[in-house]
Amino acid sequence: MTGRPNIIIFLADDLGYHDLSCYGNRDHHTPNLDALAAGGMRFTDCHSNGSVCSPTRAALLTGRYQQRSGIEHVLGPDPAKSPGMAADEPTFAHLFRDAGYATGMFGKYHTGHIPHQSPNKMGFDLFRGMNGGMDHHSRFNRWGSGVWYHDETLVEYDPGYSTELICDHAISFMEHHAGQPFLLYIADWMVHFPWQGPNDPPDFAKGVDNSAPEKKYGSVKDRKRAYREMVEALDGSVGRVMESVRKLGIEENTLFIFTSDNGGHHLICDNLPLRGHKGDLFEGGHRVPAIACWPGQIEAGSICDETIMLFDLMPTMLELTGIEPPADRHLDGTSLLPVLRGEGGLPERTIFWRMGSKWAVRQGCWKAVCHGDEPPQLYELSEDIGETRDLAHAYPQRVQEMIAAFEQWERDVDRDSLDNSRANFAADKNSHKKHPTSQSLRRGRQKATKKGAGELLIVNRK
Question: Reduced to 3 states, what is the DSSP secondary structure of residue 47?
Answer without folding.
Answer: strand
